[in-house]
Amino acid sequence: MTVDHEFLEVVVQKELGFHSMDEFVKQQAYAIFQQKLTETESVVVRYEAKYGMSLDQFQQRIVNPKDDVLMHFGIIEKEDDLMDWEFQHHALPYFRQRLEQLAA
CB–CB of 89/81 below 8 Å? Predict the structure, then answer.
């Protein structure tokens, strides 16, 4: 499928009210990164609530199989959550950086 760029320019500028295709793309990229940031923050908050601690605390305490709080969770569940939690935690600065760059 080919894209009619002239048609898109008309739609973006005249029908959607953007000054240029670049402005439209920048705004859409910003909205997508904002959504990703919100979703990622939500996942991090969910893990903090689930375990009642920060990621740093979780990382330190997960190695103790007799931890009073963590012993109520299965080892596979904790390991899966740890991997996802770490990934989400490290994604936060990336999404924030992209938003700052797109806002400039």
Answer: no
